[in-house]
Every structure is written in structure tokens, then in C-alpha cells.
# Entry
Amino acid sequence: MSLASPRWASRSRSVFIAACAAVALLGLAACKTSDDAAAAATQMTATAQALADYYAAVGKIVSNTEAIYRLNDQLEGKEYSPRSKAAIEGTKAELASRVKLAQDLAGLAGSFAGLAGSAAPADVAASAQSLDAEVHTLSSTTESSAEQQGLHDALTLLVKAIQERKEREAAKDMMDVAKNFSALFQKEKPIWISREQVYATLSANLAKDLVDAGDTDNAAMLKVALDPFGLTMGALAEDTKTKLKSVAKAQVDVRRDAAEADFASATEAMQTALDEMAKRIEAVAQEKPMAYRKPPLTIANVKTWAAHVMAY
Amino acid sequence: MANALLDVQQTFTSLDTQYSMLRLACKTDADLKALADKYGDAQANYEECVGKMLSDDDKEVADLSSQLKTANQKVAKLEAEMGAMSVVIDDITQAVTLGSQLVAKIPV
# Structure
């Protein structure tokens, strides 16, 4: 059969179209990965930022504890020793390094997002356009516009398939990182819980001592009863002052317990978010379907708690 | 290690909670100084225990840092490869163009 024969031309076009179709199928099979990779990158960024916020808030708790140590030393004669000073400085440095680590994780997620949202498709469009131009010059052939469009689409999908394979490679690299972050957090959780409990206990003890010493304005607690009726505070009877001290100390206990419960809740929420993130990255790496594409819901709890801690 | 932390935490916070009462019970300056010293020791034990637990994790933190760096480099490399995708497309375009030209030479 001659190259110039009509049968050869027809067969060549068929092979060409079949090749385009195969490339298109390859692209279609992979295109869900890109959406999942982009979702995973967004989730990872949000979770890493929440982790950085968590560590920064624990750092604030440690700094506040140090402030209580100094107050206790001056007001209560509770020694703040050089040994404690040296150790607490080390803890602050460790926390700062973890904030940086979490920020680096967010940076990695950003790179992953950059890969998932690569500008490559724009390059493809430009190159495919020049290919289209070439195809248009082939006036002697009977290529239909549908075939030209098919060629353009097939090329775009081919690049998308290549891109998605790279996304899966990147997800595999990140899978272990995500799992190890979760493991580190799990291991260190008792330390952070302990730090919060110590701060809550020491600050509550100092607050109650100040109440006992008559150094707090407990009359303010009566505003809730007087304000709705347009009444103002007068001079309090001694008996009322004494009773208000008990109310004030009870309030300290209630708020200390609430702070500890909020911290425990935020810590568990952070752990859940890290575990969930690791699972989702693993799903992308292994091409499993991603059930949820929004960031783990629990990070909202962490961010709310962290913002509250940073405010005082 | 976590149990050790709980133990020293318990000692320290209990002493802090009872400190005012114990101070009132001191009859001499020596008693007061001994109480203050013990409080300082309990506080330092707690802080040093936290420090040791975190130091114990130093290797893991360093490993994680190293993993992150490697992952970042790999992803950056992939990004660079994707950035050069237009070159790949140009190669594909050239091949397909040649194929199209070949097809064009074939009479219908």
C-alpha cells in the first residue's frame, strides 16, 4: 500500500484520532486527583496554621506562668530560682521552634498548592494554539474542526495527567511528614496539658490570695444585679464584703476549671485535625477518593481557643 | 516520663496551693527560708522535667525539620518541572506538527 493511497491516509487519520482519544481517556481518569490534591493542600495549610497558632498560644501560657512566678516571688515570697529561669527559657525556645516548624509545614502545603494550581495549563493553551495554527495550515487535508478541537483537548489532558502524576508523587513525600507531625503532637500532648494546668492552678491561687487580702474590687460582681434596675453601688456592709470574697473565690475556681476544659478540648481538636490531615494526604498519595474536601472542622475550635489565650 | 512530669507537677502545685497556710505555720526565719527553698526546688524540678522531656524530643523535631526540608525541595523541583512544561509541550507540538505535515502530504 502506497503512502499516497487514500486507504493509507484514512488509516493514518484513524490512528491519530485513536491516539488522541487514548490521551483524553488518560487525562479524564486522572483529573479527580488534581481536585483532591488542591483540596489536600488547602486543608494542610489551614491545619498547619492552626498548629502554629496552638504552639504560639502555649508559648503565651508559658510566658504568663513566668509572669506569675515573678509576681509570686515579690508578693508571696515564693522563690523564682535561677534553675527555673534557665529551664523556662529553654521551654520557650522549644515552643518557638515548634511554631517555626508548623509555619514551615504551611509553607510546604503552599508549595503543594502551587504545584496543584500550576500555570502549566496556560502554557499548554499557548502551545496548543500554535499547534492549532499548524493544523489550520493543512488545507489540503480534510481535518474537521471537531478533530482540531479534539487534538487541542487531548494535548491539554495529557499535560494534566503528567501534572497529576507529579501531584501524587508530592503527596507521597508529604504523607510521612504529616504522619510524623501527628505523632510528635500526640507524644508531647501531656507536656502542653501540664503547662496549662500549672498556669491555671498558680494563677487561681494568686487570685484567691489577692481576694483574701482585700486587694480586689469584688463589688463589681454586683453590677449584674443592680444595672438592670438602674441602681448604683453604695458603700458595702462589712458582712457583704466578706460574703463577696467567697463568691469571688468560687468564680476563680469555676473559670479555672473552664479554662482547663477549653484547653483540653482545643488540644484534642488539634490532634483530630492532624490525624485527619495525614489521612487525607495519604488518600491523595494512594489515589483513594477523598470523602471531605473542606479543612478539618476541628481546627476552628483550636483557632478560637488560641485567639482567646493570645488576648490576655 | 509523662508520669514523672505528673508527679513533680503534683508536688509543685500542691505546695503552691498550701504555701500561705504553711508560711503562717512557720515559727522561725529558718523555717521560712527552708519553706521558700523547698518551693524553689519544687518549681525548678517541674521546669527542668518539662525541659528534659522536650530535649528528649529534640531528635524527632530535628528529623521532622529535615523531612520538611527534603519534602520542600522535592515539591519545589516538581514545581520547576511543571514550570518547564511549556518546553515539553513545544516538543510534543513539534512532533505532532511533523506528523500532521506528513499526513498532509498524503493525498485523499
User: Anything to note?
Assistant: Residues 42 and 113 of chain A are 7 Å apart (CA to CA). Chain A has seven helices and no strands. Chain A has a mean pLDDT of 79. Chain A touches chain B through 79 residues (CB under 8 Å).
